[in-house]
């Protein structure tokens, strides 16, 4: 059984009195910064001028340019979009990354694919909550924590593991458990999960189901409830108690579909394609395509984003959710 670290083995002490610079104040940045501050640690924010800067100041943080924040900090947590990290690192972080500091990430993309190469005299690590940023904050405020991973790429100070675990505690991850991994494993599994299953796979499955029902003449509102809304409630059961908890709660008729029909939807073809996607992640083809797409100012990404906004499921969903006053819409 793999070892899980909890608060008792992930003491905050080594980060007490140190300055943590959270670089970026988006989904992960705002949640990690606020959790660390509420855990009693000193946090400053590094940003460019813009929307996030105003939000971080309104949330009561001292905000600096990325270079200034790096200069002032002992621990630098890079929470910028992956595709921008290489440039910002080279221009604004590397010049101030002096001996003994910690360079940390929540995803290993740039280190693993060689876009950032840190000097030998700093610690390099990742501490990654396994969940979306807004939930990292929400769950912490509720008294829990989103579980996390940590990995050490470089231990220049001899304290890197202790520091990583302290950071994991600060963001609340050690409340529910932190697992050790490597940059390679985190990067490849995270990319595979989000591309093939959680984001890519799940949204295509939802749209395919919705389109099938609507094309057959059923009301789009019914199709929305069936294929998108209820998915969250089913996944909640899996999250709380695995597939068996879902099976306990659903009807036997639904369970028949779970056993017999699901495998007609996720076929050997799909599994073959999943393996192909994983191979492209492992051999760097996916990283190259994503880096090149960004260098070309995202022509394909932008075109598909526009088409997706127009999808009927988005319009019907917005109307229905407008009637659900209890929903958290932040
Ligand atoms: N989203 C998630 O839940 C998860 C993300 N991660 C990882 O966390 C990291 C951050 O992702 P995420 O939180 O989604 O990112 P977001 O896109 O939500 O936020 C990015 C932040 O970086 C700022 N920023 C962008 N460009 C620059 C720049 N050139 N200089 C200074 N600041 C800049 C943005 O500010 P501005 O308002 O100025 O644009 C914004 O505050 C990534 O490595 C990602 O893989 C890991 C696990 C989950
Ligand atoms: C599933 C998407 C994710 O990998 C995450 C929330 O962990 C991301 O990078 O946003």
TrEMBL record:
Q: How is the cofactor bound?
A: Binds 2 magnesium ions per subunit.
Q: Give a yes or no for keyword Lipoprotein in this entry.
A: no
Q: What role does it play? A: Involved in the biosynthesis of branched-chain amino acids (BCAA). Catalyzes an alkyl-migration followed by a ketol-acid reduction of (S)-2-acetolactate (S2AL) to yield (R)-2,3-dihydroxy-isovalerate. In the isomerase reaction, S2AL is rearranged via a Mg-dependent methyl migration to produce 3-hydroxy-3-methyl-2-ketobutyrate (HMKB). In the reductase reaction, this 2-ketoacid undergoes a metal-dependent reduction by NADPH to yield (R)-2,3-dihydroxy-isovalerate.
Q: Which UniProt keywords apply?
A: Amino-acid biosynthesis, Branched-chain amino acid biosynthesis, Isomerase, Magnesium, Metal-binding, NADP, Oxidoreductase
What is the protein name stated in its UniProt record? Ketol-acid reductoisomerase (NADP(+))
- Catalytic activity annotated for this protein? (2R)-2,3-dihydroxy-3-methylbutanoate + NADP(+) = (2S)-2-acetolactate + NADPH + H(+); (2R,3R)-2,3-dihydroxy-3-methylpentanoate + NADP(+) = (S)-2-ethyl-2-hydroxy-3-oxobutanoate + NADPH + H(+)
Q: Where is the KARI N-terminal Rossmann domain?
A: 2-181
Read off the InterPro entries from this record: 6-PGluconate_DH-like_C_sf, KARI, KARI_C, KARI_N, KARI_prok, NAD(P)-bd_dom_sf
Organism expressing this protein natively? Desulfuribacillus stibiiarsenatis
Q: Where are the transmembrane segments?
A: none
Q: Which PROSITE patterns match?
A: KARI_C, KARI_N
